[in-house]
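Methods, example record. To illustrate the input and output format used throughout this study, we show the complete record for Coenzyme A biosynthesis bifunctional protein CoaBC. The sequence lines were provided to the predictor; the line carrying structure tokens was produced by it.
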Amino acid sequence: AAGGRGAGRLAGRHVLVSAGGTREPLDPVRFLGNRSSGKQGVAIARAALAAGARVTLVAAHLDVAAPEGAETVPVGSALEMREAMLEHAPRADAIVMAAAVADFRPRTERASKLKKRDDAADPVVELVRNPDILAELVQRRSATGQPQLIVGFAAETGDDDGTPLEYARAKLARKGCDLLVLNEVGTDASGAQRVFGRDENSVMILALAGGEPQHAAGSKDEVAAAVVRRMTDELAASEA
Ligand code: CTP
Ligand code: CA
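The corresponding predicted structure is encoded as:
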């Protein structure tokens, strides 16, 4: 290994990362989307590459360039992302679901463009649930018994019923992944977007196994380095 802090520690490992935001087609020209820029997922891919891993990046509509050196698989919708993730999962030592996957998609994708009509009522879009890709990846792992580290992301806001941390713990237990990276989303006191599209980030890393949440803050690259360091430690510990 090249030494230094973590350089080469993922040599020989394959890391599968999803990034960006899915777009759910309404008709040939329209979609339902979200504000994810893909910056945090791309930063994770870059940090894994820097640690010596082979990286496959399943990329949905990134606002930023995919890192050189990663095998990039472009996808559009949640269903396409699901297919790509399940296809590449069997070869991955670690999986990071950093993408913002749409929870719902329009029930039907119209074959032709939706038109305004004066003689008919305005259309209503009916939505159906998308599959939970992260939960499926966890299921696939337990079904196959493949040793694999699975990391989820959670964007949470607090409300009267719970804090972001409480919601994140419940989500981690529900999904069954090994680590969950918690972001607080929404707007800050000045009304500015707190996470989406920004270069700075502040997260908590929670482990299914328990223990104190680990705080990491800084640029999205610094946060990514902290997440990849933690992943590297967990991979090493699972083999010890
Ligand atoms: N995720 C996924 N497939 C989905 C939705 C989410 O794989 N259909 C993944 C995300 O990539 C992320 C994690 O699940 O790693 C948590 O996403 P989040 O939207 O916070 O959780 P949801 O289960 O969708 O719950 P919520 O109702 O709070 O949105
Ligand atoms: Ca969601």
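Annotations derived from this record:
Helices lie at 39-50, 78-88, 133-144, 164-175, 220-239.
The radius of gyration is 19 Å.
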